[in-house]
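Long-time lurker, first post. I've been practising inverse folding by hand and with some scripts of my own, and I keep getting stuck on stretches where the C-alpha cells seem ambiguous. Below is the full C-alpha cell string for one chain I'm working on. Before anyone asks, I'm not after the true native sequence, just a reasonable design that respects the backbone. If someone could post their per-position residues I'd love to compare against what I wrote down in my notebook.
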C-alpha cells in the first residue's frame, strides 16, 4: 500500500512521501488558479472549480479564495454553498451534504497528529473523515475537527469549535461546541 492509499484508508502516514507532496502541490496550483478566478466569469469559475473539486455537484458553489490539501476528497452535495476564505484539509474524505451552507472563514480539518512529541517529530499523521449532513448551517469562523459528523439540519453557531459529533436537528455553540437547543419542528 502506498502512503497515499494508507492516507485515504485512515492509517498513520509519513507526510513527506513523494506522491503525497506531488498531489498536494498540484492541488495548490489548482486552488491558486481557482482563487484568482472571479465568480463574475461563471464559465471560467466553474471550470476552475471542477478541476480543483471533481467531486462537487454541478450546482454546488464555492466562493474564492479557497484552500485545500487535495480537492479530490471533498464531496459537495447539490446546492451546497461554501463562503469566502474557507480551508478544507481533505487528506480524508470530507462530505458536505445537499443544501448545506458553510459560512466565511471556516476550517474543516481531517489531519490528526500524534500526542507524543517524539512521534510528531517523525512527521507522521493520520486522517479522519468529516461528514456534514444535508440542510445544515455552519456559521462563520467555525472550526470542525477530525472525525466529526454533524447530523442533518443542524446549526453550528459562528465561532464554534466542533470536537465531537453533533446529532441531527440541534443547534450547537461554543468552544467546545455544546448543544444549546433542539430544532425539531413541533407538529
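-- Answer (accepted) --
I ran through it position by position. Result:
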Amino acid at each position: 500500500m502506498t502512503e497515499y492509499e494508507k492516507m485515504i484508508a485512515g492509517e498513520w502516514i509519513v507526510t513527506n512521501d513523494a506522491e503525497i507532496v506531488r498531489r498536494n502541490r498540484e492541488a495548490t496550483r489548482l486552488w491558486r488558479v481557482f482563487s484568482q478566478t472571479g465568480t463574475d466569469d461563471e464559465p471560467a469559475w466553474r471550470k476552475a472549480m471542477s478541476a480543483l473539486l471533481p467531486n462537487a455537484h454541478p450546482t454546488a458553489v464555492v466562493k474564492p479564495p479557497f484552500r485545500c490539501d487535495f480537492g479530490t476528497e471533498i464531496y459537495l452535495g447539490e446546492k451546497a454553498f461554501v463562503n469566502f476564505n474557507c480551508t478544507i484539509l481533505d487528506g480524508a474524505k470530507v462530505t458536505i451534504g445537499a443544501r448545506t451552507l458553510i459560512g466565511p472563514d471556516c476550517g474543516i480539518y481531517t489531519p490528526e497528529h500524534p500526542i507524543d512529541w517524539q512521534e510528531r517529530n517523525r512527521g507522521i499523521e493520520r486522517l479522519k473523515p468529516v461528514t456534514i449532513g444535508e440542510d445544515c448551517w455552519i456559521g462563520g469562523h467555525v472550526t470542525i475537527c477530525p472525525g466529526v459528523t454533524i447530523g442533518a439540519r443542524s446549526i453550528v453557531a459562528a465561532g464554534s469549535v466542533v470536537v465531537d459529533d453533533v446529532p441531527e436537528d440541534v443547534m450547537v455553540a461554543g468552544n467546545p461546541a455544546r448543544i444549546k437547543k433542539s430544532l425539531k419542528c413541533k407538529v
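A couple of notes from the structure itself: Residues 5 and 114 are 19 Å apart (CA to CA). The longest strand covers residues 178-182. Happy to go over any region you disagree with.
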